[in-house]
From TrEMBL:
This is 4-hydroxyphenylpyruvate dioxygenase. The gene is hppD. It comes from the Bacteria. The keyword Repeat applies. It comes from Neptunitalea lumnitzerae. Keywords: Dioxygenase, Iron, Metal-binding, Oxidoreductase, Repeat. Its cofactor is Fe cation. Belongs to the 4HPPD family.
């Protein structure tokens, strides 16, 4: 697996060299899901994933069309939105996709300029620059369409002192399960259709000024049965990373194709969240009922010392603990990483989460792709969609 990493274009220097600075991004602002029942989804993300009640809008706050719950865990903000009547355009999104990610919001210094720079480079506008105000100041937001029905909204909040956005009130709850140690969004992955990956790579380069800093082809990402291709896009400061996957031909159905069938088009496949202590985080998640993909065979764990090489010295985790929790390990020149993938968090086999702890490594677990995909295929087999 270390060879896999060596063979691809790699290095943060390249990110800074190649990236354009016409769209400076400060970080992920929020991720908004359209869901069928925001009240119940909010309970799930609090109970199972340790998110905290943060802000709310709904009938009680004067929002007649939609209800939204905002949940927070360290730097991660999730917004769960549901329509309150059949006229809402959100219903079409739900009928087509089921629950899923609609908005990947990006925190910017200047939302108008971000919208102008991107739309002048070919982005399709989703929302013209809009100023929202309340007694705490003003927020400017503007949005563009990306793959599928997903949109990016640029959020400028430098003149705002309120909790989240105008229109939202503090969400006070008597039910406050503890967090599980999520820190920030490490990366978010999009699945696009057959032959569309390069077109979206080009789009992120041309429209957003991103660079492609890692690529995996179907020779690297395949099992006996199925394959996919992936390219990782990053903005200039490396804070925003969007890998983009497309299916590839194999003997059986690619997991990406299964996603596209069930989501009925391109969309966000997984959200990877960073933790400083994956063993504690995963123990806690398992105790709360979060389901993970099954562990690779014992041989995988026996080979870890060989795979990690010199990084083994800095490894603090006990391999037996990793095996018990089904946590995967990978390494590149700069260090190692620990990761694990949940089963889909919805009934359609679409959106899932990744938990990742980086110990110097900057890759995405290429050395785990085979073990991971064999585990996914065991699930596909059970669903009858392999
Ligand atoms: Fe990932």
């Amino acid at each position: 697996m270390m060879d896999t990493i060596k063979n691809v274009e790699y290095g943060l220097e390249k990110i800074f060299e190649g990236a354009q600075d016409f769209l400076p991004l400060l970080g992920t602002d929020y991720i908004e899901f359209y869901v069928g029942n925001a009240k119940q989804s909010a309970h799930y993300y609090k109970t199972a994933f340790g998110f905290q009640s943060f802000a709310y809008k709904g009938l009680e706050t004067g929002s007649k069309e939609t209800t939204s719950y905002v949940l927070i865990q360290d730097k991660i903000r999730l917004v769960l939105t549901t329509p309150l009547n059949s006229n809402s355009p959100i219903n079409q999104h739900l009928v087509k996709h089921g629950d899923g990610v609609k908005v990947v919001a990006l925190w910017v210094e200047d939302a108008r300029k971000s919208w102008e720079e991107t739309t002048s480079r070919g982005a399709k506008s989703f929302m013209e620059p809009t100023v929202e105000q309340d007694e705490h100041g003003e927020v400017v937001r503007a949005g563009i369409h990306t793959y599928g029905d997903v949109v990016h909204i640029f959020v400028e909040r430098k003149n705002y002192k309120g909790l989240f956005l105008p229109g939202f009130e503090k969400w006070e709850s008597d039910y406050n399960p503890s967090n599980v140690g999520f820190k920030f969004v490490d990366h978010m992955v999009g699945n696009v259709g057959w032959g569309e990956m390069n077109q979206w790579v080009q789009w992120y380069e041309d429209v957003m000024g991103f660079v492609n800093f890692l690529s995996f082809d179907d020779k690297q990402i395949h099992t006996e049965y199925s394959a996919l291709m992936s390219k990782v896009m990053s903005n200039g400061n490396g804070r925003i990373k969007f890998p983009i996957n497309e299916p590839a031909e194999g003997n059986k159905k690619s997991q990406i194709e299964e996603y596209l069938d069930f989501y009925e088009g391109p969309g966000v496949q997984h959200i990877a969240v960073a933790t400083d202590d994956i063993i504690t985080t995963v123990k806690e998640l398992r105790a709360r009922g979060v389901e993970f993909l099954s562990a690779p065979p014992r041989a995988y764990y026996e080979e870890i010392p060989k795979r990690l090489g010199s990084h083994m010295e800095m490894m603090k985790e006990d391999i037996a603990d990793l095996e018990k929790l089904a946590i995967l390990v990978d390494a590149d020149e700069e260090g190692y990483l620990l990761q694990i993938f949940t089963k889909p968090v919805v009934d359609r086999p679409t959106l899932f989460f990744e938990i990742i702890q980086r110990m110097g490594a900057k890759g995405f677990g290429a050395g785990n792709f085979k073990a991971l995909f064999e585990s996914i295929e065991r699930e596909q087999e059970r669903r009858g969609t392999l």
